[in-house]
Amino acid sequence: MTRRDFGKISTVAGLGLTWGMSRVHAYMDTPAGVSANDKIQVGLIGCRSMGWTNLMDFIRNNEVECVALCDVDSNILEERANELAAKSGKKPAVFVDYRKMMELKEVDVVIIATPDHWHCLPFVDACKAGKDIYVEKPLANSIAECDVMLQAAKKYGRIVAVGQQQRSGAEWLKIMELIKSGTVGEVKRINCWGNFKYGAGRPRVANSSPPPGVDYDRWLGPASERPFNANRFHGFWRMNWAYGGGLATDWGVHLLDMALWAKGDTGQFPQTVVASGGILRFPDHEIQTPDTLNVTFNYGDWLLSWEHNCGLESGPWNRNYGVSFVGTKGTIIANRESWELVPERKNNEPLTAAIPLQANQQNVHQPHVRHFLDAVRSRKQPECSIEIGHTAAVTAHLGNLAYRTGAVLSYDSVQQTFNNPEADKLIKPDYRQPYVFPTL
Ligand SMILES: NC(=O)c1ccc[n+]([C@@H]2O[C@H](COP(=O)([O-])OP(=O)(O)OC[C@H]3O[C@@H](n4cnc5c(N)ncnc54)[C@H](O)[C@@H]3O)[C@@H](O)[C@H]2O)c1
Questions:
Q1: Which of 58, 136, 217, 364 to mutate to test the pocket of ligand 1 (most atoms within 8 A of CB)?
Q2: Domain extents for the chain?
Q3: Block means of pLDDT (10 residues each) for the chain, length 440 residues?
Q4: Distance between CA atoms of 159 and 157, rounded to whole angstroms?
Q5: Residue 52 CA, closest ligand 1 atom number
Q6: What CATH class is the domain 10-167+366-385?
Q7: Residue with CA at minimum distance from ligand 1 atom 33
Q8: Distance between Cα 235 and ligand 1 center (Å)
Q9: Does ligand 1 have an atom closer than 6 angstroms to the CB of 49?
Q10: At the topology level of CATH, where does 170-360+393-425 sit?
Q11: Which of 9, 267, 281, 299 is most buried, by CB atoms within 10 Å?
Q12: Residue 365's Cα: distance from chain center in Å?
């Protein structure tokens, strides 16, 4: 079965909703995993920020035990190992080199929460080692890496969830149902935006020595050699092309993913992508990604847009970030905090009933992790399968490549080529020796 199998109707308890697409995706050849009685033993790679948040939502489930931690910053590694020991009474095994962690037979699941340029290699190695994987979004930092990860998950039959947690949100599911049932009419335009201060990075500072205890060469990994700079390091790597894609991939995948869900998860890429922007507000900051950006993705029969303005703290519909699903009868506006439906009007009469602002009740991350754990047991792929993560990440990268080349891009995902040689050069990163782009 693949993501294009739209057979089953699943019911969401409590909301009484149906959603026409199967919410689980299974591979015919997915090998057996942990048995129903066994604990699910987890190893975390990348422990500082989101990795730790993920792990906390894993171990709140009694059936999960964290047996290993890995980080290239030994300060963080030690601090997290102590915190975990205080919580669970057991000290995990600790590693600086994730490959050693992969050798542990008892590790069933790895969580990958490293910077984006460091998702692909551990992911493919985890597939080869027979682990199931919870990988953070965006799936990877380039189109070619996303592609090889998708192939690896399929070839080795692994259960994979991508950290686009809105996919497990009851309120988002309700919105999808409203759109699918035609409540807002035909949706021909979806706008996504994210105005976040952190996307502006910080003012430039001089390069320096890496902090004691940090294996900086390993942090760089497959990326080019480059002097250490505090404002390209922990948390701030996002705004440098070698490690991340700026707000367009960092927040873009979350919100573009909601648009792709609303349009039926066809797996299709846009016919053309055009972008415009620049580093317009923060020229003295340690950033390469644009602080101001507009992208238009043209799918032929509908338009998708992404917009960000780093430094602003408000935005369209009085929200600094969000999605508006613009239908012929009404528009649904949503973000993680709330949603509402604003009717379209004809001769001043509303074409559908308004739904006033609804505060979202649900923590979406805990159910997202729960769905992954269920998938590890059932051997059926979870809501946010690797295909879902792949399409969202590649779409977001298309926007960045349109910005970087200044061209109107068309991408042929079968031939893996663009209509533009400059964009072709950016499909696959050159891995720095001794790192080698993974083969399966
Ligand atoms: N789903 C979400 O809502 C969400 C939120 C925040 C971040 N994220 C994603 O999580 C990932 C991590 O982001 P972050 O904000 O936690 O970054 P971070 O810089 O705070 O932490 C990354 C950690 O990975 C470690 N690391 C780097 N290379 C490593 C390697 N080769 N092996 C082991 N450890 C390594 C670093 O030392 C650091 O501790 C990113 O992909 C990001 O996009 C997702």
A1: 136
A2: 10-167+366-385, 170-360+393-425
A3: 28 26 37 73 98 98 97 98 95 97 97 99 98 98 98 98 97 98 98 97 98 98 98 98 98 98 97 98 98 98 98 95 98 97 97 97 93 97 97 98 98 96 98 97
A4: 7
A5: 16
A6: alpha beta
A7: 71
A8: 7
A9: yes
A10: Dihydrodipicolinate Reductase; domain 2 (3.30.360)
A11: 299
A12: 13
